[in-house]
Amino acid sequence: VTVECAGRRISLRTMDTLRKECGSVVDEFTRxxxxxxxxxNKRNELSKTTESLHKAVKQERGQLTGLAATFKSTESGDLxxxxxxxxxxxxxxxxxxxxxxxxxxxxxxxxNSGFYLSLILGSNLNVSLVSAVEKMKYKQEYETxxxxxxxxxxxxxxxxxxxxxxxxxxxxxxxxxWYYCTLTIRESILRVNxxxxxxxxxxxxxxSCVFCGVVLTWxxxxxxxxxxxxFLLFIFxxxxxxxxxxxxxxxxxxxxxxxxxxxxxxxxxxxxxxxMFAGLTFLLPFLCIGYIFQLANAYVLYExxxxxxxxxxxxxxxxxxxxxxxxxxxxTGLVIVRKFRRSNADVARLLRVRxxxx
Length: 358
Ligand code: COA
Hints:
Order of helices and strands: EEHHHHHHHHH
Distance between the termini: 89 Å
Organism: Pristionchus entomophagus
Bound molecules: coenzyme A
Structural class: mainly alpha
Transmembrane segments: 145-165, 201-218, 274-296, 316-337
Protein name: G protein-coupled receptor
Coiled coil: 80-107
Number of helices: 9
Strand order of the largest sheet: 1-2
Helix content: over 70%
InterPro entries: TMEM120A/B
């Protein structure tokens, strides 16, 4: 059956199909709108709950701080043996609460992103990674980013060897300034979200950014030409060490994640520990060579200085190399010592658990 419409003949069956399809699209849209309004309600509810939890945590913290003074005044008084024992038990209960409040705080979105991120991104941008999966994905992405840019830097350094033009060096230096700046932002976001990255590694990346900036301003004179081959070799070496470091860090990340953060699983924790120490033992000699290289660069630049009148970059880079080397040596040293101590404590804990179960 057909009808005439605007001078054209349209089949009624086609009209029926059109009506049905339009109806289903409208129904789908109505459902979508109602889902959206339910999402908005839940989001508002979530932000209210988050706000009240933040207030409750703050209040609880205040009460815990107040308790410290009460403990002090009570314990300094004349107490019987039973009362002293009760005080000690209460103290341990309260210190357990302190640890648990830290954990609660970590589960909540961050309210203060710190000076650096507020300055760059604005203070009202939310940089919270709420779930553990989100945090892990962000960290993985950070490691992949480091890896890819390191490969690009290695390629550029090789090109600089092949084509010894200043413009090639400037391109790799520009890339490094951008890379280290980006790293400081990503690392600040990671730290705000509970990562245990040592302050020195972030500082190291700020300094590296300044360092590459200073190299960019160094004029293409005799001094620059003299130091250039050693500098390119150094960047190449550090790039290779960073690739090894990437293998180690992503390995740790994968294993820790599959162990469910590895805190409660003693036996698998032992396996993780063994893997981590094997990785560290492999990495350490290369790191040490890198640190010696940094000290040697500082020395060579220091020796070069009398020949390079008016080139302030020479002493500035020498000092920067020295500071970076000392910071790296002391931080890596502390990390290794702490890991060995903690590992011994873990082994002692394991032995205690086994002796109890035998
Ligand atoms: N840069 C960025 N993040 C780092 C880091 C670095 N150099 N070293 C450690 N971290 C991160 C870890 O990924 C971890 O993050 P998470 O809490 O989000 O999981 C956190 O800091 C704590 O790590 P930690 O347990 O202290 O050390 P590690 O086992 O991960 O790594 C080393 C130990 C020694 C291998 C590592 O610190 C390192 O490679 N240091 C040398 C860096 C260096 O000197 N570079 C210049 C090359 S010559």
